[in-house]
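Example record for the data management plan.
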Amino acid sequence: MKIFIDPGHGGAEPGAAANGFVEKDLNLRVALKLSDLLKQHGIKVKMSRETDVYVDLSERCCMANTWGADYFISIHHNAGGGDGYEVIHSIYAGEGKALAEAIGGEFFKTGQNCRRIFSRQGANGDYYCVIRETVMPAVITEYAFLDTSDVQAVDTPGKLEREAEAISSAVVAYLGLEAPKTTPRHWAQQDHNELQTAGILLSDHTALLDQPATEGMVIALVNHLRKEMSKK
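Corresponding structural encoding:
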């Protein structure tokens, strides 16, 4: 099974930008995590971009077509006022519509409203290039609006990871694949990741999450917090 992941926008094309967030960056973060998750299920993955570069829409389609992808998933985030998720599929329905509905179902489980799952007619078939010019079933996901309070659905690394997990779960269920045998994620892992991203934890403490904190560790953490607070 080969799935092509397309992080929307990139480079000089930022996409939506609001509340301190830029769509192209969120798209890439979710896509990279999704790639890792799908590979754990033995799925081959190729991406239109893995860094902050611009790739022409037709080139993205050509890459997927040449590679022989079985499915095409384009990751986006929304703007323009509103809340909830949208998933777009081909006007010709088929597997693209079925996959879009599967992804929408998993998005709903995260607490997001279902805004719509839809297709759009253009002058020459599908309106959206990445759906019109790909030869495999293709969908576009729009998980949340960045310019309203809906941004709270994607405002931390943990929430972006949850978005990627929702897409992965939908794909795996749709394809009828077994979940890989993995160690359950520690209950404090998300908090650990967010503190590390914020610069409060200066190294990876994942292996120590169940270890008692020493007095020295507590002193160092409190002092680091003091320094961070003094910057405010």
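Summary line stored alongside the record: Strands lie at 2-7, 17-18, 21-22, 44-47, 71-78, 85-88, 114-118, 121-122, 125-126, 138-145.
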